[in-house]
Amino acid sequence: MIVFPNAKINIGLQVVDERPDGYHELQTVFYPIPLYDALEVVDGQQFNIFETGLSIPSGSGNICKKVYSVLADEFDLPPVHIHLHKTIPMGAGLGGGSADAAFLIKLLNEYFDLGMSVVRMQDVARTLGADCAFFIENRPAYATGRGDRFEALDLDLCSYSIVIIKPDIHISTAEAFSRVDVNKEGRSLRKDIGAPIEDWHQLIVNDFEVGIFDRYPMIRSIKDQLYQAGAIYVSMSGTGSAVFGIFEKGVILPDLANRYELWYC
After folding, report:
1. The GHMP kinase C-terminal domain covers which part of the protein (predicted)?
2. Is 26 marked within a binding site?
3. Which of 10, 105, 206, 252 is the most exposed place for a label (fewest CB within 10 A)?
4. Left if phi > 0, otherwise alpha if psi is -120 to 50, otherwise beta: which for 186?
């Protein structure tokens, strides 16, 4: 059985408070995009993971091992062979590792007929990463808490073109949070996301951009270049380093494609 975990972008990412558990209270909008990994599970004599595609220094299969371990302990699963082919870059703010984990939860649930509900699968996913639970339902959502509490959102960008650019910079979550400030000024992303898209650049911000741009000016430059190319809204996704631009019509950006990893969605 094979599935295709997709990436996501964050439209707005606001850090609005500190939590007693040491995490931060966030507001963000998750939007799934058509940039895919491939994940296959077949019967095996012993458990193993085979990884192909993008080279991931820390081993992206680790989170898949955690998923299998959690579910194997609860449901006494037999061994399987997992093949993970990576296309979504890591350290980019695109949720690739979280998507792999969530899709593996759903795949194993179906493969072994475990009978887990959506809520149960989301609970398992929350133990693996803050944005992991989003990919269980995998539809546009306004998220709060650590980014793991969702409200369905009527948001459709299918008539627009989205360009993703990933510089050769890997940003860890820990580094990103060490550079961000809490902002309690009473902003409402839930309200602002309903504004016309051409007004988003005046309303919707990613709070991580200030600290990351200071440390990595190249990422700021990419944002500027996407606006110069005609994008109506540009933002760093998540904690970076990928930047996306929303265009009213399809575009080809050969100059940027020659300098950076670039995807047209």
Report:
1. 206-248
2. no
3. 252
4. left
Average pLDDT over residues 51-67: 76
Identify the pLDDT of residue 114. 98
Residue 241 among known ligand-binding residues: no
Q: What pLDDT score was predicted for residue 59?
A: 46
Domain 2-152 part of CATH 3.30.499.10: no
Active-site positions read 8, 131
Domains 2-152 and 161-264 share a fold: no
Q: Which CATH superfamily is domain 161-264 in?
A: GHMP kinase, C-terminal domain (3.30.70.890)
Q: Model pTM?
A: 0.94
98 is in an annotated binding site: yes
The reply to whether omega before 241 is within 30° of 0 (cis) is yes
Q: How far apart are CA 26 and CA 23, in angstroms?
A: 9
Is the per-residue pLDDT at 139 higher than 90? yes
